[in-house]
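[step 3/7] inverse_fold.run input=structure_tokens len=238
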């Protein structure tokens, strides 16, 4: 994938030959950022994404030498399903990250056993770390990142960089279940953002989003990449 020139001057492009090499490099970089935060503040907070793509990265991150007991781990977004559900992002983190030494991290889930995400919103926002040091985003083939889905019922507010909300519910045809997601404003407050994508199809979607041609201009991931407040380090491989 070639880096477009229009909105990508502030994006750090990190290409890798394969998934394993990418996973090792991204895990090492995230761990280094967390160590810096621990050294500065005595603790660190990390927000991670779900789906199939990050599994290898999460496993490599769990192997990093860190003061895990000083790390808070939460999610960029979550499907409104219990942790026992196969589509739960919390379940993914339990299986692939919060193992061994990394099990000492403090996990802050984004789901509560209530019928609708709106019912838990106030509690979840209160429990969210005041400072998130690192966030790792993914991207779907429809150009969504976090739970910024095309056609989402709260998408305009979620992408408003001036909203005071750090979390919002999201419903969209392509989302399956109702979701809850960090807002763009919350992500812009994160000192280090990463985007992790793999495969030719997602690279093509990202290329369209960056070019802004046709439907690419409306892809939600473009809103994250186009801003220069919190530059995004993009890690990708075939």
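[step 3/7] decode complete -> sequence:
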């Amino acid at each position: 994938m070639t880096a477009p020139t229009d909105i990508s001057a502030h994006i750090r492009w990190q290409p890798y030959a394969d998934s394993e090499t990418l996973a090792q490099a991204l895990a090492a970089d995230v761990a280094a950022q967390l160590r810096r935060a621990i050294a500065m503040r005595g603790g660190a907070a990390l927000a991670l994404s779900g789906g199939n793509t990050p599994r290898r990265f999460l496993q490599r991150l769990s192997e990093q030498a860190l003061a895990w007991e000083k790390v808070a781990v939460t999610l960029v977004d979550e499907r409104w399903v219990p942790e026992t559900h196969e589509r739960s992002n919390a379940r993914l983190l339990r299986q692939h990250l919060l193992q061994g030494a990394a099990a000492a991290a403090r996990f802050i889930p984004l789901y509560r056993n209530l019928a609708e995400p709106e019912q838990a919103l106030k509690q979840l926002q209160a429990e969210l770390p005041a400072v998130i040091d690192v966030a790792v985003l993914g991207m779907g083939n429809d150009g969504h990142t976090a739970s910024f889905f095309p056609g989402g019922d709260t998408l305009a507010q979620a992408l408003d960089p001036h909203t005071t909300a750090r979390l919002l519910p999201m419903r969209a045809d392509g989302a399956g279940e109702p979701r809850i997601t960090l807002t763009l404003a919350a992500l812009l407050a994160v000192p280090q953002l990463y985007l992790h994508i793999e495969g030719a199809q997602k690279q093509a979607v990202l290329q369209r989003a960056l070019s802004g041609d046709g439907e690419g201009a409306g892809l939600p991931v473009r809103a994250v990449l186009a801003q220069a407040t919190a530059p995004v380090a993009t890690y990708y491989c075939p």
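[step 4/7] annotate
The longest strand covers residues 192-198.
DSSP finds eight helices and ten strands in the chain.
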